Amino acid sequence: xxxxxxxxxxxxxxxxxxxxxxxxxxxxxxxxxxxxxxxxxxxxxxxxxxxxxxxxxxxxxxxxxxxxxxxxxxxxxxxxxxxxxxxxxxxxxxxxxxxxxxxxxxxxxxxxxxxxxxxxxxxxxxxxxxxxxxxxxxxxxxxxxxxxxxxxxxxxxxxxxxxxxxxxxxxxxxxxxxxxxxxxxxxxxxxxxxxxxxxxxxxxxxxxxxxxxxxxxxxxxxxxxxxxxxxxxxxxxxxxxxxxxxxxxxxxxxxxxxxxxxxxxxxxxxxxxxxxxxxxxxxxxxxxxxxxxxxxxxxxxxxxxxxxxxxxxxxxxxxxxxxxxxxxxxxxxxxxxxxxxxxxxxxxxxxxxxxxxxxxxxxxxxxxxxxxxxxxxxxxxxxxxxxxxxxxxxxxxxxxxxxxxxxxxxxxxxxxxxxxxxxxxxxxxxxxxxxxxxxxxxxxxxxxxxxxxxxxxxxxxxxxxxxxxxxxxxxxxxxxxxxxxxxxxxxxxxxxxxxxxxxxxxxxxxxxxxxxxxxxxxxxxxxxxxxxxxxxxxxxxxxxxxxxxxxxxxxxxxxxxxxxxxxxxxxxxxxxxxxxxxxxxxxxxxxxxxxxxxxxxxxxxxxxxxxxxxxxxxxxxxxxxxxxxxxxxxxxxxxxxxxxxxxxxxxxxxxxxxxxxxxxxxxxxxxxxxxxxxxxxxxxxxxxxxxxxxxxxxxxxxxxxxx
Length: 707
Description:
Elements: E1 2-3, E2 10-11, H1 39-55, H2 59-73, H3 77-94, E3 100-105, E4 107-109, E5 116-125, E6 132-138, E7 149-152, E8 161-170, E9 175-179, E10 183-188, E11 193-198, E12 201-205, H4 208-217, E13 229-231, H5 239-246, E14 253-255, E15 258-260, H6 282-290, H7 294-306, H8 314-326, H9 330-342, H10 350-362, H11 366-378, H12 386-398, H13 402-414, H14 422-434, H15 438-450, H16 458-470, H17 474-486, H18 494-506, H19 510-522, H20 530-542, H21 546-558, H22 566-578, H23 582-593, H24 602-614, H25 618-630, H26 638-650, H27 654-666, H28 674-686, H29 690-701
Helix pairs in contact: 1-2, 1-3, 6-7, 7-8, 8-9, 9-10, 10-11, 11-12, 12-13, 13-14, 14-15, 15-16, 16-17, 17-18, 18-19, 19-20, 20-21, 21-22, 22-23, 23-24, 24-25, 25-26, 26-27, 27-28, 28-29
């Protein structure tokens, strides 16, 4: 089916350019192929339609005018649709910015030629939840050396609030002065802005010297420096009414109607009957692209980027994306932004990426809106702003863009730029997950696994992890491995855990690499291999994974799968410890306490034991108690020893339970109590602690001991 070039109606003929209503003997009878969508006439048409569209209250009026204009300028239906689509997007984008009242104070002071005349305006923010800044600019056509009026609000105007704004202007001639083309720029809290033009208004400019003479001759109370008042609404009134207004300092506000000034974005002529191209045929696409068709230029960029039907070339992709982008094609602008962000075919530049993303996003391109949200979230090429990230994610999400929906879910999960809400996070994750977005499916699985914003369900968590994992999402593959390892929502199967850990590990997921190393180290779901354990620990450790760094340190300390080296053990323990890994902190403390791979230092041992103990590590708590009990690296204190032994013992640490029993038996740092001694010795003995077993025997054989 082909569409009529003029009215857009479909017709089955591949040779007919127009429907029977438009040609060959009707409105388009003289349309030659070379006359259609000429660039200068397209530009003229854009300007004409823009002005009418934003001033008209009737779609019928716009349609009637546009049809006549298209017949005269030979503008195709597709080009008209492209222009109208951009105008509709603009109108939707600026709707909230237009929600204001703008007034002029007709009680103009100092309205004298050659002197400062202060013009005062009042802006009222009529929205319920948006903040706005206001800039005024007016350039008097009678002056050429300056911008005559520039004023702006110092801060945002709150919802349902008003602010007075203005500035001084010098007028050269007396008489009636008309102010036209006063431009008002409204900018919201997210940086979106729109320009409006106030309707013309006028007032009288007086003769200052004549005013001074009148003041002296009538002996009134206004000095030569006094300020006169002219009321524009009183022009032509009698002298008495004028004097009455002159004596009044009350503002006389007159509302000014304001019209939106459309953004003049370039519009490429749409594909007309002789410019159709088959996007799957590189020859057809290239021909249309070389003829200046922006859609084809964008498509050709895609083909070069992905090597479809042409040799892959990032440079050629950039070339064609730029061609389309410069004609205003939103998809091409987004594509060019992508190339700048990744540094493909062009020098990497986050600033340029943001520049092109903004252009595409402003036209309503949902993918670009998501990309712009990401740039704001990460502060790449633009000042970091969670609020702006949420703003753009929401715009893309509301258009159904799955990546933007997932991004918005992330912001709600973490309370960034928006009030934290697990329920809202789940809402957006679900929307994206149902579209097949793997990242959202994984995130939704996480919410189910942890019962956040939804009833906790390991089965549902596995369901969504599985969907994402099967799409190759590494995080989901790792999470699914964890569920199999622990038998959560699925039968416990070490082999399946290894299967999914390996898939994620081979994609470079550091957490999965560490988990796979653990499986090799302990022969779970795979043949035990210290060498393979070291291999995967190292891969994760070199990516900065603290657990893997600690694991690799352990392998070096014990010479498992690698030549034993205390120095290398200390190296990796320290890397993990400095990231706050409590197990590594305890291990590093041990190395200092016994001078292994590092100069012996009780003070450094205590330093690292304490860091781990304060994080709740039971082994470190017991060891720190030992240091206090023996006064090593710290002032001796039985009380502190008992304090740390108690913390570790309550976590089930057998060594600490035995030590705490000893302190109670001997009344060290605590009131002597045979009963408490037996209590703690028994707990340690039940875990097989040989020292506690012997001590408990001694207590039970002693007739004075508590049982």
